[in-house]
Amino acid sequence: MSDSWYSAAQPWLVPALSAALALVVALIGARIGLAVLRRIVPRRPLAAPFISAGATPATALAALVAVGSVLHGAPDALPGISTLRHLGTVAMIGAATVLAMRLAAAIESAVVLRFPLNVGDNLQARRIQTQTRVLARTLASVIGVVGLSFALLTFPQVRSVGAGLLASAGVAGLAVGLAAKPVLGNLLAGLQIAFTQPIRLDDVVIVEGEWGRIEEIGRAFVVVAIWDQRRLVVPLQYFIEKPFQNWTRHSSEILGTVMLWVDYGAPLEALRAELRRVCEAAPEWDRRLCLLQVTDANERAMQLRALVSAVDASRAWDLRCRVREALIAFLRERYPESLPRLRAELESTAAG
């Protein structure tokens, strides 16, 4: 038995040693190449995401290519050589697909480094990040589908089945189209959002009556971070098909309003001076607008609107709360009689 095993394994001795040597050389070369690239990273920080994302699949691909070249150069008469070549081809396609998908995803990380959101006016950064995120994820999905298709086409059985089904492609295509309608709809909606940009990352929106920020734009849905730390998950098609409010469509600057009901005797000029004083002292105010107007009146009181401005919605919210608290405290301390009151007249009638 040992002689038969030796006789069966002897033809594989040279190809196996050659494959092992090629594998070692490929791994050493990949390690040296990555070391050289990592030395370049400090001078080119935008390359860091690509090196980090592609290091492992690139090393695997180099090893598979080295071993595959040995297998394809081996004699065709070796037992099991065709199966190993096929498996090696499928593995190379898989490694190349993973490498391409990771590099596509690294584009998003590089753009985040190049255009950060933590700046005063981040409109351009939000626009570019939104486009890049949607397009990069769409590209990664397409690469995955293409890679899987190439891997399947290496099997002769799959090719023959595909040719046999070609005659019934109309009915099958209709069924698949109906089943994949939500997926394709979200894919097309994602592309439309990337180019037309009704929403962008970090946009302040009101969706389904909820106030929040666009936190994530995925392949099939958008995550809206609600102000109370809840998350609203909305399909991509929603932002194409239904109306919603976008408070930062053209700029992150925004106006905030504070509504107060006061008595008709309230001192308007004193309130305007107090509003100006509060805004001047508030770090959230961007010094663009600070205005107090009477916007409504009824038989009991008049409504005042304080209009203030801030560089973004978050600061506008804090400024509105600050102004509201300050004006109410001012009225309560200086002019308590100016707070809304209910007037009534009592009449007494003499007993007959």
The number of helices is 10
Task: Report the count of strand segments.
Answer: 8
Q: What's the story with the biggest beta sheet?
A: 5 strands, antiparallel
Q: Tell me the β content.
A: 5-15%
Instruction: Return the structural class.
Output: alpha+beta
N- to C-terminal separation? 134 Å
H and E order = HHHHHHHEEEEHEEHEEH
The poorly predicted ranges are 162-179
Coarse shape: elongated
Adjacency order of strands in the biggest sheet: 4-3-2-1-5
Radius of gyration from the CA trace? 34 Å
- Helix percent reads 55-70%
Please tell me the overall pLDDT: 79
Describe the secondary-structure layout.
Elements: H1 2-40, H2 48-73, H3 81-114, H4 123-153, H5 156-165, H6 169-179, H7 181-196, E1 204-207, E2 210-217, E3 221-226, E4 231-235, H8 238-241, E5 245-246, E6 254-262, H9 268-281, E7 290-297, E8 302-310, H10 313-334
What this model shows, in words?
- By secondary structure, the protein is of the alpha+beta class.
- Among the domains are: 10-162; 254-338, Alpha-Beta Plaits (2-Layer Sandwich).
- The chain is 59% helix and 14% strand.
- The strands form 2 sheets. The protein has a 5-stranded antiparallel sheet.
- The chain is elongated and about 125 Å long.
